[in-house]
Amino acid sequence: MHRPTSLVVQISGTGKLGREEALMANMAHELGVPVIEATEKQLERRKINLDKDAVAVGSVPFVRSALGQLGICLPMHTPYPPELEGILHRRVAKVRSLREAKAMLEIRGRLFIKPADGWKRFTGFVAEFGDDYRFSGASSSKPVWVSDPVHFVSEWRAYVVEGDVREVRYADHGGDRDREPDLSVITAAVATLTAAARGPNGYVIDFGVLENGETALIEMNDGFSFGAYDGVKPSTYWDVTVNRWQELTSQIKRD
Asked: Does domain 91-147 have CATH number 3.30.1490.20?
């Protein structure tokens, strides 16, 4: 990992930084890296020109626009690596369309459904009816992931840099913080991904504790546009983000 020439961070229309963007900007100031603020529209319209050794931080559309300037597409999103199927502890399948998933819903009654062709076109949720308002605007022809609903009594996020689990932090959106995951399951999962060359240089991977105490994979997320849970060190968030960005842009010829 080399030091970025600048950090381009997304700001809202009112000029405010989000939590993660502020965290990265503060780290950049500490490291002496210049910070450039930009809205999503400014980046999309190329009002801000990205230096090839800069790092962009923001929403998925913001990162997409930044990479697009450099002639790079977003990588494929693989939330359920096949190598980790054994620790899902539930049935998970990719189906050809939301329409097909809704037909399955009529038979199975309840399903967790999330988009499979891109980056969170709608937030995944447990559906009971095909006309649920949360599907509003979603294309019926796009592929989705479906899985059996399970109850996680607590949820956790591992921050991974070059195959090393830097931190595991509690996802503070409900649940029992005292129900901690089996760290050996997490480290073994990361080691499996590393051995199979499936893990990017920076990523986060979420696990949940089931009611029976088992630790199950929730999903894996790429090392950009991800949440910084309470307690995570700014240096860890920086390392995950910068390592992944530089991996994505490594194909660019540098002077």
From this structure: yes
